[in-house]
Amino acid sequence: MDEQAPDAFEANRRYLGSVAYRLLGTFTDAEDVLQEAWLRWRATDRAAIADPRAFLTTVVTRLCYDQLGSARARRESYTGEWLPEPSVTYASAPDSPADPADLAERGESVSLALLAVLEQLTPAERAAFVLHDVFAVGFDEIASSLDRTPDAARQLASRARRRVRDGGRRASADRAEHRRAVAAFAAAALGGDLQALLAVLDPDVVWTADGGGIVRAAARPVRGADKVTRLIAGSVAKWFAPELRLALAEVNGEPGMVWYDSTTGTVAGVLAFTVADGLITGTYVVVNPEKLTHIAPFEG
Question: CA distances (Å), 60 to each of 19, 145, 159, in order?
Fold first, then answer.
């Protein structure tokens, strides 16, 4: 065995993991795919591979594609609403420019809200959209991964783009506006100021929570500022025990919040938002503990 054999795989591991996570929505499944891809890489005649990154992208995409069908069946029997596992970072300067090399490895930022919308796509649509719109993979390469023609791959991505646009919450790309709304939400919710909370919520805001049947959470999305305000008031009393603390964080590349045990630092919940015109249009709450184990303890 060539001692240098792992190099190409390891050099692309972060990129491949980013692809798998965006295709599957969970870090556990993404890691399983990477392990299988590594085994296939080891068993391949690497001397015959002209572009290892393209080859490995195809392998990972096909493995994810195979998993998406069974994953959809599992999620249909899930207790309550299913949300993707959140990615959380505690950035010291979250609004500072991102490193270009880092962005190339991670692809374009995909919010928790967008990942939730991607669940509505077919496996082929999701793969075409993620590879092309998030990682800028060409349609020839996508076609090879999906056993389609380049024109068919282009049509899949176009159809997915329309469905994502039609199914998503109204949101702006202004990070400063997003951050201000999140900070106002946190202050109003923790301070019990219902009028201030109503002031930062869009009239048609939607609250979606994932407790997985383990932690109590709304079984279906809650719609409307009045209903969401009442739900938040009750949730603060229910979820925030004396030892729990709230912190602003980056959730899937956007301003969000986590709450955690102040003694252990263990994360108890994650909250992501969509914001438009200074108002919160959507909230995505993950309190299923099985979806939070991968998040590093808070040390702030």
Answer: 8, 9, 22
C-alpha distance from residue 9 to each of 13, 24, 32, 145 (Å): 6, 20, 15, 18
Low-confidence stretches of the chain (pLDDT beneath 50): 1-5, 93-94, 96-104
Closest residue by Cα to residue 17 from 72, 56, 70, 65:
56
Residue whose pair of structure tokens reads 């669940």 in the numeric block = 119
**Tens of pLDDT along 20-58?**
999 999 999 999 999 999 999 999 988 889 999 999 999
Residue 6: its pLDDT value, please?
53
| 227 phi-psi bin (left φ>0, alpha ψ -120 to 50, beta other) | alpha
Place of tokens 């919940």: 269
Q: Reduced to 3 states, what is the DSSP secondary structure of residue 26?
A: coil
Whether 65 contacts 127, CB under 8 Å: yes
